[in-house]
């Protein structure tokens, strides 16, 4: 019986009308290709191709097989695509969310997904913004939420999800902790502890830009820490500051204060592969590209 693999070989030769070009297209050797074509001819009991000095010509039987082989291969490819879609339909939706996202953001994203597909199982993966970009780029998650601003590869699309406002985080023993709000210029000269730039380079630079535009000439620390590490270190460093949202207010040993000039702002973005065929991702993408994440998905 002729195999699908052999039909693909035959179609390549019939379309190229040249064994060497067909072999290069199939990434196999010319002798191997010739051997497989002869095997098909033995199976059907006659010549399918006439080999000549200028290339290859189809026989009448070869033309019949070419038309039928194209139909068979198209049907086989379609069956695989439909099966893959059915497998994905039964699989959990892979959602990536950046570490330290605002409370409830993951739940709101999951609620939005289930509003469009009741009973959906969601598999959550956390990581830095850079890791979320890599995960969605390599098709390890279906949709990722990360902090912005962020420059994404051209084959990924992003949309605004929510904004978060930041203030100054410091030890309760810090000299500025006595103030109800802090003038940005008062931060000049203090050591600022931020996350590693590689984990979210555009956001890292944007936060420094926002501070310095307000007159806060801070000194960037040589220490690059995660948010959790910073919360542990700052109580021991009354000479340093960090940035955090109001969610960090009330952390033992720490003081959180707003900036008098208004809060620093960061954006949370959703990212997905532009060419995705997942209908659920497309539905969510349509919602997010027309407005921010709804509070209560319907």
Automatic annotation (TrEMBL):
Residues 2-59 form the HTH lysR-type domain. This is Hca operon transcriptional activator. SUPFAM superfamilies: Periplasmic binding protein-like II, Winged helix' DNA-binding domain. The keyword DNA-binding applies. InterPro entries: LysR_HTH_N, LysR_subst-bd, WH-like_DNA-bd_sf, WH_DNA-bd_sf. It comes from the Bacteria. It holds the Pfam family HTH_1. Coiled coil: none annotated. Keywords: Activator, DNA-binding, Transcription, Transcription regulation. The gene is hcaR_6. Transmembrane segments: none annotated. One of its GO terms (molecular function) is DNA binding. The keyword Lipoprotein does not apply. Belongs to the LysR transcriptional regulatory family. GO terms for cellular component: protein-DNA complex. It comes from Nocardia otitidiscaviarum. PANTHER family: HCA OPERON TRANSCRIPTIONAL ACTIVATOR HCAR, TRANSCRIPTIONAL DUAL REGULATOR HCAR-RELATED.
């Amino acid at each position: 019986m002729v195999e699908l693999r052999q039909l693909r070989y035959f179609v390549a030769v019939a379309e190229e009308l040249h064994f060497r070009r067909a072999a290069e297209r199939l990434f196999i050797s010319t002798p191997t290709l010739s051997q497989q074509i002869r095997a098909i001819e033995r199976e059907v009991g006659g010549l399918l191709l006439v080999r000549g000095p200028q290339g290859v010509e189809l026989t009448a039987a070869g033309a019949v097989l070419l038309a039928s082989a194209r139909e068979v291969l198209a049907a086989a490819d379609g069956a695989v695509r439909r099966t893959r879609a059915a497998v994905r339909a039964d699989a959990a939706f892979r959602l990536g969310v950046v570490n330290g996202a605002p409370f409830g953001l993951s739940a709101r994203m999951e609620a939005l997904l289930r509003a469009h597909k009741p009973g959906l199982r969601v598999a959550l993966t956390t990581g830095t913004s850079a890791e979320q970009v890599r995960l969605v780029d390599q098709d390890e998650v279906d949709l990722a939420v990360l902090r912005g601003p962020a420059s994404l590869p051209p084959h990924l699309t992003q949309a605004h999800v929510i904004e978060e406002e930041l203030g100054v985080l410091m030890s309760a023993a810090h000299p500025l902790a006595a103030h109800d709000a802090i003038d940005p210029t008062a931060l000049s000269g203090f050591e600022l502890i931020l996350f590693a730039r590689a984990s979210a380079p555009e956001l890292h630079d944007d936060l420094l830009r926002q501070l310095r535009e307000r007159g806060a000439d801070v000194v960037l620390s040589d220490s690059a820490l995660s948010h959790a590490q910073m919360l542990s270190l700052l109580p021991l460093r009354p000479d340093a500051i960090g940035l955090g949202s109001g969610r960090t207010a009330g952390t033992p040993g720490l003081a959180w204060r707003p900036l008098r000039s208004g809060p620093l702002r960061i954006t949370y973005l959703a990212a997905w592969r532009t060419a995705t065929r997942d209908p659920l991702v497309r539905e969510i993408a349509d919602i997010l590209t027309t407005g921010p994440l709804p509070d209560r998905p319907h």
